[in-house]
TrEMBL record:
Annotated S-adenosyl-L-methionine binding sites: 234-240, 258, 285, 305
Keywords: Acetylation, Coiled coil, Methyltransferase, Nucleus, Phosphoprotein, RNA-binding, rRNA processing, S-adenosyl-L-methionine, Transferase
Protein name: 28S rRNA (cytosine-C(5))-methyltransferase
Subcellular location, record wording: Nucleus, Nucleolus
Extent of Basic and acidic residues compositional bias: 437-451
Organism per entry: Upupa epops (Eurasian hoopoe)
GO biological process, one term: rRNA base methylation
Amino acid sequence: MALYNAAAAVLEGLERGEGGIKNLVYNSGFPHIRQLYALVSETLRYSPVLEKLLAGAALLQAEKKLPPLLAKVLVYDLLFGKGLKCGGRWKALARRHRARLEAELARLKVQQKVSRNEDLLAPTQASSPGASQVPRYVRVNTLKTCVDDVIDFFKRQGYSYLGQAASVDELKGLSGKKFLLDLHLPELLVFPPHTDFHDNVLYTSGHIILQDKASCLPAFLLAPAPGSHVIDACAAPGNKTSHLAAILKNKGQIFAFDVDTKRLATMNTMLMRAGVTGFQLAQQDFLTVDPSNPKYSKVTCILVDPSCSGSGIVSRVPGEEAAASAERLQALSGFQRKVLSHALSFPAIRRVVYSTCSLHKEENEDVVRAVLQEQGSAFRLVNAFPSWPCRGVAAFPGAEGCLRASPADTLTQGFFVAVLERCEEGAAPPSCLSAAAEEKPKRGEETELRAAPKKRKRKKQRV
């Protein structure tokens, strides 16, 4: 069952918007990467068909303990793959329903007037608009190294460094072994699309993190000061947690929550490899965390990146894009509102960043609007990152303070970010962003800012 459980975990990661299929597969810890990648890719390709089969056969209603994503993987391999090779109760369960599933498959073929399984699939379409142009983003892990050293390393590997990008359009022209420094985020390098670094020594040693640019925005905009206590409410697989640690310079405390034991174990390995200290992982639903617990009395910043439809994830394999029914969107948005409201209930909280990799207004602006209305005048929406070109849709007055990202407009995955801050009575509104986020840092200025403290620092490992 290890293969099927690993595949279901990758599908869950995609659904939660935690990364692309390749990153999630490579970070899964499963020993047979190609086998896992093939199973996940094919399950995604047949996903619309599998959903119809599961619904028609009422499998999930009959087997209430069977996780839906695991059911997809099992039914795919049972009907379209190489047959179930696992043992145990899940194999027995799937075979118990085989006749009904095969009957439903035959009915579907008759209904669509096709004879082959492949003919049930929608015609192969190109990836999302601009998907082929989305670059490979590489975040330099400043806990272990610095931008200049990583640039020098890639130069020694034969890459040509073109300096800092001046516009998004400039990122479109990357090809071959050329790379740029991103125009918005000071520790993000940009390479041509599909550049693979999974076997690169900088990646395997934790000196670089393969993370989409849009996924870097939540921690960047939360911008906790070194020494702060921070909560990552829905933390696995840990890229955003490691980014928070880098911003904190490993000074302070991070409390990271996730409900899945295996995902937490994988995340712990990733954080240790990245050199993160001062973190506590907990297998716990964030909604069950008690805000009045003295343990969290100093928590001033919370990052909320809850489960979402994943509709903004750029498809790199057929079928990877996520579809969501109206009922599913309603269920997701209800959960998202609860998580965001819970984050705002912590007594010392100053700033909360809410993000999704969804394109749906129901999961984005509508969630923020509902929670702000619920909070009254206690919190306000910040006009985040004014230089960012893609803004929130006009769902309510001030929604343009939110950020959106898309392959076509920002050359990233589809993403949404909102920054909320506590309003103090009789005090001036707090600053909406860190200086780094308000103005695009110049290469030299950013270096000077980082070098400003005169305290003796531990020498970083040179790469």
